[in-house]
Amino acid sequence: MKIGLAGLPMSGKTSIFNMATRAKAQTRDYLAQTDEINNGIIKVPDARIDKLATIFKPKKTTFATVEFTDIPGISNAESKSASKTLANIRSCDAIMLVVRLFPGEEVPHIHNKIDPAADLDELSLEFIFSDLEMIMNKIERLNKEMKAGKKPEMVREMELMERLRKTLEDNKFISTVELTEEEEHGLRGFRFLTQKPLLLIGNCSDDQFLSDSDSAVQSFKTACQERGWSPMLISAATEMEISALSPEEEAIFLEEYGIKESGRNRLISEAYRLLNYISFLTVGEDEVRAWPLQKGTSAQKAAGRIHSDIERGFIRAEVVACKDFFEKGTMVAVKAAGLSRLEGKEYIVEDGDIINFRFNV
């Protein structure tokens, strides 16, 4: 699961990256833009795993993880550089688009007006033009191939490409197009930018975070809502300082200021949700572990996340809802209350299911 942090130069992507990963990557100014990409693997916060670990006291505790990659700013000043940047974003599974809301020092060669709506328009157009170029190239190739004979699959693909072309030319993202499962599968190889899961991060000041009336915040939220995007406000500069604290110091700081959850945890949890992932859990004295899984996955496929032999030899899944376990306190009590279930291979795994797979190979 790889999430790319993208945005215009000076939007604060690296500060967001440092906050999320607790890294100390050097922030770049506009005049020192490089092709360097920062990568970091981070644990997905999960209070259930923390609680289960205190109960089972396992030798090992394993959280689900997400990979964050900090990609240099998108700039159309250098077409070669912009093309490389977009290619790096294309390799990610989802995009966190960082938009600057905070006021600050002026930067030569770029517009200094804080205008989130204009920034979003610029970024959207970069994505749309990049995808449109790929589609036009595909249409051109299909036209050449169809001169030698129109096969039914070619005709269907051409019709799909024309639909996507019209959507992009109407300034809309491919993610707004209703696709069949077959069409969805056929588009996977393109890795279209405008089809990827997208989360909008408004990088703001502390004052802006606390004020819905701020003009930049209002502009950002309105622009997101118009496109059906989920906006999130993060004061990256402050949150980066909080993330540098020890877990104990961070807990004291959050309690002192009445903050329920750090921006870091909100960001990571939202990233997990963005990818449409849930976690099923396995427990025992050896290990308590969260296993990331796409929502809607069957029990047999979930077994394959642990080992292919378990999927192949799947018999049943013994399932206990995490909330039921916490309520009863032990597996013995859960079973006595009739809250443990045996599910077949087609059972759709729910978030927080504690599963013990029965298998035979």
Structural account:
By secondary structure, this protein is an alpha/beta fold. 44% of the residues lie in helices and 20% in strands. The chain has 2 domains: 233 residues, DNA polymerase, domain 1, CATH 1.10.150; 64 residues, Beta-grasp domain (Ubiquitin-like (UB roll)), CATH 3.10.20.30. Strands 2-4-1-5-6-7 form a 6-stranded mixed β-sheet, sandwiched between helices. Strands 3-9-8 form a 3-stranded mixed β-sheet, sandwiched between helices. α4 runs antiparallel to α5. The two termini are 30 Å apart.
Features of the shown structure:
361 residues, DNA polymerase, domain 1, Ubiquitin-like (UB roll), 3-stranded mixed beta sheet, flat
Q: Helix proportion of residues, in percent?
A: 40-55%
Order of helices and strands: EHEHEEHEHHHEHHEHHHEEHHEHHEE
The major pleated sheet works out as:
6 strands, mixed
SS element count, helices: 15
Low-pLDDT parts are: none
> What would you call the shape?
flat
Radius of gyration: 23 Å
CATH architecture of the largest domain: Orthogonal Bundle
Total discrete domains: 2
> How many β-strand stretches?
12
